[in-house]
Specification:
Oligomer: single chain
Number of domains: 2
Number of strands: 3
Strand order of the largest sheet: 1-2-3
CATH topology of the largest domain: Ribonuclease iii, N-terminal Endonuclease Domain, Chain A
CATH superfamily of the largest domain: Ribonuclease III domain
Shape: globular
Structural class: mainly alpha
Number of helices: 11
CATH class of the largest domain: Mainly Alpha
């Protein structure tokens, strides 16, 4: 009996859909077994007539699995945090905007099969990320799915200070402005299909700039950059 990874490689070498499998191997960083899970994970309901031919059921499953994996990770990493704090941190990691960014960074738009455009289906990619996790779970099991979620999907975010990621930096900067009698305001600098850029102004002068998948996120990132500058200067 061959080890699981060797069996998956044999299936890869003998398969008729090597190009799709090759792309999946790059995406998953391992050999897939049943490519049908992944084809369904990337298929929006607008592109199929069959009731179960789209990714909504996998999206449901992936959302639950991903939430459980992240919850377990936070539970173990922050043993002294209360339920409310852990819930906020999990929501910061597993939300539509963060999943949208992950989907873009992974290039999932190349895999998507849909009859609606990006503007009509703003969260097609974030939904596809959830469905992909569901597909990985059914195809490769929980152990690899946990690795995929923590070490591939959220690797960059988990390297950051999650405790501060859920902070409302915009409110902090507005409070700072009131306290120091400095007018703080925000100005939209650029907006595209799904990318926004905003300036934070102090007394009418640009103090920092942030980008994001929404105007709100770009303002938060601008506020965060200025808040970090102010505190590093004061320390």
């Amino acid at each position: 009996m061959f080890p699981a990874k060797v069996r998956r490689k044999i299936i890869f070498l003998l398969s008729h859909d090597k190009e799709f499998r090759r792309k999946l191997k790059t995406l998953l960083r391992t050999y897939p077994v049943d490519t049908e899970y992944y084809r369904r994970a990337f298929t929006h309901r607008s592109a199929v007539k069959r009731r179960n031919g789209h990714n909504e059921r996998l999206e449901y499953l992936g959302d639950a699995i991903m939430g459980a994996i992240v919850a377990e990770y936070l539970y173990k990493k922050y043993p002294y945090h209360e339920e409310g704090s852990l819930t906020k941190m999990r929501s910061t990691l597993v939300n539509r905007l963060s999943l949208l960014k992950i989907g873009k960074d992974m290039g999932l738009d190349e895999f998507l099969v849909s009859n609606i455009n990006e503007m009509e289906g703003k969260y097609l990619l974030s939904n596809a990320v959830e469905a992909l996790v569901g597909a990985v779970y059914l195809d490769l099991g929980y152990r690899y799915t946990r690795h995929f979620v923590l070490d591939i999907l959220f690797a960059d975010m988990l390297d950051e200070d999650i405790e501060t990621m859920d902070c409302d930096f915009k409110s902090r900067m507005l409070e700072w402005g009131q306290k120091n009698k400095q007018p703080v305001s925000f100005e939209l600098a650029q907006s595209g299909h799904s990318t926004f850029s905003s300036h934070l102004l102090i007394a009418g002068e640009i103090a920092g700039t942030g980008t994001g998948c929404s105007k709100k996120e770009s303002e938060q990132n601008a506020a965060k950059s200025v808040w970090i500058q102010l505190n590093s200067t004061n320390n």
